[in-house]
Amino acid sequence: MTYKPNFSKAMIKANEILIESNTIKDFPFSAVKIAEEFSDICCHSFRYAQAHNIPIYSFGSESAVIVELNGRFILFFDDTKNRCHCRYSILHEFGHLYLGHPIRTTLQPLSLQDKEAYGNYEVEANYFAAQLVMPFQLLKALDKKGYDINVDFLRKNFGVSHDAAQRRVRCFQKNKSFFFSLAEREYDTKIVQKYKKFLGFSEPNISYIGLFSSVAI
Fold this sequence. Notes:
The chain is built from eleven helices and three strands. By secondary structure, the protein is mainly α. It has a three-stranded mixed β-sheet with strand order 1-3-2. Strand 2 (64-69) and strand 3 form a beta hairpin. The longest helix has 22 residues, at 112-133. It is globular, with a radius of gyration of 17 Å.
């Protein structure tokens, strides 16, 4: 049976973190701290991997990768890239672990069937990461308050890259009137309530730009 992306699972698992996390109090937040808060994973830079002769680029990623070494999950990320890119990449890789995807322990080439499955895991992990960094519930609340949910708004107020913001805007416009399942909507009120301070903008398109440099990866 071919594996298909489970968007509902990704949404619910991200919602659980948004509610339960002691790390997320505002946006943007530290992706490394989230990964460490909700797992026993270790996070290190690509430079750390190179210093310890770990062939990190052999796993096929130039941004971040999660691997299992000696029974321990380690998430490596390229900290030479900008913070917005790093945060999203870290949460994407962490999503693979949190969503129960198989983690590679070998550099052997993937079979055709495995490649198809991994492609769908990538879609699921992307959806998970997007919900964490730009929660749909907050976008909907801001939209109702009259804010223009566009690329610049998301970049300035959620600390994300242009590409991530562009994908989220398309997804939001497509789904903002969609009736989500009861399970997916279970945490909506709690999420809006928890982040009500963040939602308390007094001016449209207010910019937090300039604060990003003080936010850890």
